[in-house]
Amino acid sequence: NWYGIEPQHIMAVDGGHGVGGCDWDGRWNHVTKFLERPGPFTHPDFEPSAEALSGFRIIHVVDMDTIDLSNLNRQFLFRPKDVGRPKAEVAANFINSRIPGCKVASRKCFSKMHQRKFHIIVCGLDSIIARRWMNGMLISLLSYEDGVLDPSSIIPLIDGGTEGFKGNARVILPGMTACIDCTLELYPPQINFPMCTIASMPRLPEHCIEYARILQWPKEKPFGGNLDGDNPEHIEWVFERARKRAAEFNITGVTYRLTQGVVKRIIPAVASTNAVIAAACATEVFKIATSAYIPLNNYLVFNDVDGLYTYTFEAERKENCSACSQVPQDLQFPSSAKLQEVLQFLTESASLQMKSPAITTTLEGKNKTLYLQSVKSIEERTRPNLCKTLKELGLSDGQELAVADVTTPQTVLFKLNFTT
Ligand SMILES: [Zn+2]
């Protein structure tokens, strides 16, 4: 989900005589303690007053998903009767009926136009690609004059994420502080067990499940087609095979639940971790919206796997970040390198991690697609280029390559530098 906070409807904290006739005596007592008196952590430029602006009246919540039964255990907004309904709509209705005066609007999708009017974006996304996309979108909205960033074009991005008992929250001021792509190396690649371990020396119950999933299923095709993680019969089949495999190697711990978790790549969501991270994100929104406090600078780590541990650090901007640096990206290859190698670099480099890059360039004044994966007919037509060398493709030293990918809404420009 992401939440856009619209600034046109600022609500003054006035200790009980607010707009809309829905306030009551003492409603804002807690908030006024922060806004009407100074404290050791208040922003140096902040002047406490009863006039201080506290908030926002309209929150847009965006989520394309509908509610699944398995979502109910880790959140507080959905009830069994809501299963099958759009998440954004149900969440919005719940908050609207619970908190007088708060207006939450729900959307199932967003476009560039929608985002321009928001002052703060809060992300609670479940994938790095989606984070990078939103990050890239906010970067694309920045305006520069003679290379100087116009601060009014910055829309702060507050990003929260959890994985089991671990979580993080961060504040990104696009163009000013480290963005998602600046710190891409922090994200671990998806865990895949080495094939040799799965095939010949399993040590963990997961190895046995992967054996059944990766090696036995494609060979035996028990139900004809592909493995469907939502089909209980399929999971049961993998579970049984994994259990046999585990017994051979004296490995314990293969359960139906674990099988389902491994097949569907589920990392259990823990409600308490989600609550802590959501609170951290909400606190940052409060600080930015009121300007009363200095925002988190800029990355908070939370871990309660064993005891409880939390700290913050300042993630640094990457000088040549492909998303936010405005520095042309260099690609260093010998002219004898094949296009395949360039493609591999774009997907495997820790700082780029693209998914299915489409590479185009300009040759003799014409746009030319060198390789594009997402459209079958174009893929087939451009596939032979992968085996050609950069020289054979007619590319020259200093050539610009435009690369489009799902990880960014904008095309990334690369400059080809031939090495010898
Ligand atoms: Zn960056």
Please give a structural write-up.
By secondary structure, the chain is an alpha+beta fold. Helices cover 29% and strands 20% of the residues. The protein contains eleven helices and 15 strands. It has helices at residues 29-35, 87-98, 112-116, 128-140, 195-200, 205-220, 232-248, 256-263, 271-290, 339-348, 376-382; strands at 2-6, 58-62, 103-107, 120-123, 144-145, 148-149, 157-163, 166-172, 299-303, 309-313, 329-334, 358-363, 366-371, 400-405, 408-419. The chain has an eight-stranded mixed β-sheet with strand order 3-2-1-4-7-8-9-10, with helices on both faces. A hairpin with a 5-residue loop joins strand 9 and strand 10 (309-313). The radius of gyration is 25 Å and the shape is globular. The relative contact order is 0.11. The model is unreliable at 7-19 (pLDDT under 50). Zinc ion is lined by residues 179, 181-182, 318, 321, 323-324. Residues 179, 181-182, 318, 321, 323-324 line the site of zinc ion (ZN). It catalyses: ATP + [NEDD8 protein] + [E1 NEDD8-activating enzyme]-L-cysteine = AMP + diphosphate + [E1 NEDD8-activating enzyme]-S-[NEDD8 protein]-yl-L-cysteine.
Comma- or semicolon-separated keywords:
single chain, 420 residues, alpha+beta, eight-stranded mixed beta sheet, five-stranded mixed beta sheet, 11 helices, 29% helix, binds zinc ion, ATP binding, NEDD8-activating enzyme E1 catalytic subunit, UBQ-activ_enz_E1_Cys_AS
